[in-house]
């Protein structure tokens, strides 16, 4: 059944594996309803204003999909007819507008996403030729409309991609280290710690600073989608049903959320990042400046072995190298052993949250994790580990 224009509609948030529950909580806080976790996704309902709101304010998803239609689909013929009846294509896809199709899932006869996407494209082009005698062009980069097909069981769902590009690209990070942590994953990891800005936050192996930058932005209410919105890079800004006044209202609300202090008016606790690579430290400083949070972050060229913690105990967050991406240039077990020694000797009363993709190296810290949260980092099976340092 196709969506009635102006009504509340069903949507999908595509999220990093392991962050489904955190993303569901975030969407609920943004007034979405019927929120349900899926694998690597969260289903929810919202209206037009809410769809704009999540694009501007949600930190964890990669993208948002708005459902156009859900229909029975057991073969190619049903897919062809279902796509053609899924929406008012006079409204959504006149021949002057370009488009791209993506696909996930499978059904008998369509088990490869490339051919499923091609079947959707052919159905739409056939419909256009029948009604207009001409067809849209296919654009892989920056098309006017991005459509997403999902096949599952005996059904198909056709979505509009409101994001257009991955939302992890906040726009502040032209400079990155060798194995950058995606911004939305970093935000999700910080959310899982429960850190709210009231305690010191330290990353002793900070790399390009993503964990700390996302933490500061979250504590200060800096909406992650503002730069993309101002540059007109959201796909939904080019949709024929785009409501400019409603968008302007949501943009104003998102902008007004930004603060220079915590939500209760108190100053943010100190945030420190350390790395022993001068070029990487400079990258972190540039990224923090581009994100507008550099006044609250202090990055220093230093080895974590020399770290002297602030007097007030707080949180240590860390995404150390674990060999899969960065190679084995260092003795990783020695690095983790030294990290564990430093923590036990100097950081009593602190909490450590560490992203591990190598259990053997992590074991060298000689610390016992009290929580282990499964996380996928770029396809690498990891654990977000929580320790109490005593």
TrEMBL record:
Record-linked InterPro entries: DNA_methylase_N6_adenine_CS, RlmKL-like_Mtase, RlmKL-like_Mtase_CS, RlmL_1st, SAM-dependent_MTases_sf, THUMP_dom
Keyword terms of this UniProt record: Methyltransferase, RNA-binding, Transferase
Domain THUMP, chain residue ranges per copy: 50-162
GO-annotated molecular function: RNA binding; rRNA (guanine-N2-)-methyltransferase activity; rRNA (guanine-N7-)-methyltransferase activity
SUPFAM superfamilies: S-adenosyl-L-methionine-dependent methyltransferases (SSF53335)
Tree of life domain: Bacteria
Pfam families: RlmL_1st (PF22020), THUMP (PF02926), UPF0020 (PF01170)
PANTHER family xref list: RIBOSOMAL RNA LARGE SUBUNIT METHYLTRANSFERASE K/L (PTHR47313), RIBOSOMAL RNA LARGE SUBUNIT METHYLTRANSFERASE K_L (PTHR47313:SF1)
Protein name: RNA methyltransferase
The species this protein was found in: Synechococcus lacustris str. Tous
């Amino acid at each position: 059944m196709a969506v009635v224009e102006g009504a509340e509609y069903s949507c999908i948030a595509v999220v990093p594996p392991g962050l489904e529950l955190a993303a569901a909580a975030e969407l609920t806080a943004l007034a979405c309803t019927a929120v349900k976790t899926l694998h690597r996704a969260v289903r929810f309902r919202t209206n037009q204003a809410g769809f704009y709101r999540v694009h501007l304010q949600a930190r964890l998803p990669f993208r948002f999909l708005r459902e156009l239609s859900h229909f029975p689909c057991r073969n190619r013929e049903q897919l062809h007819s279902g796509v053609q009846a899924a929406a008012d294509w006079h409204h959504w896809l006149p021949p002057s507008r370009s488009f791209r199709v993506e696909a996930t899932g499978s059904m008998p006869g369509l088990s490869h996403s490339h051919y499923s996407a091609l079947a959707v494209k052919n159905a739409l082009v056939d419909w256009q030729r029948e009604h207009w005698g001409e067809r849209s062009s296919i654009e892989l980069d920056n098309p006017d409309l991005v459509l997403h097909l999902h096949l599952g069981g005996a059904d198909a769902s056709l979505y509009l991609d409101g994001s257009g590009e991955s939302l992890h690209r906040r726009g502040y990070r032209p400079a990155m280290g060798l194995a950058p942590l995606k911004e939305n994953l970093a935000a999700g990891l910080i959310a899982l710690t429960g850190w709210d800005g009231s305690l010191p936050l330290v990353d002793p192996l900070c790399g390009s600073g993503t964990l700390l930058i996302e933490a500061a932005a979250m504590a200060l209410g800096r909406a992650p989608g503002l730069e993309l919105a101002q540059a007109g890079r959201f796909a939904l800004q080019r949709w024929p049903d785009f409501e400019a006044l409603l968008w302007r209202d949501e943009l104003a609300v998102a902008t007004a959320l930004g603060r220079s202090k915590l939500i209760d008016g108190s100053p943010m606790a100190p945030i420190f990042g350390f790395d022993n690579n001068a070029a990487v430290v400079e990258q972190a400083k540039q990224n923090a400046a581009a994100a507008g949070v550099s006044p609250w972050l202090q990055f220093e060229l230093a080895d974590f072995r020399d770290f002297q913690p602030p007097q007030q105990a707080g949180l240590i967050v860390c995404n150390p190298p674990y060999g899969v991406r960065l190679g084995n240039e260092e003795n990783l077990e020695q690095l983790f052993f030294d990290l564990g020694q430093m923590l036990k000797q100097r950081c009593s009363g602190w909490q450590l949250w560490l992203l591990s993709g190598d259990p053997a190296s992590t074991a060298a810290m000689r610390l016992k994790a009290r929580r282990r949260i499964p996380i996928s980092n770029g396809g690498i099976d990891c654990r977000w580990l929580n320790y109490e340092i005593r």
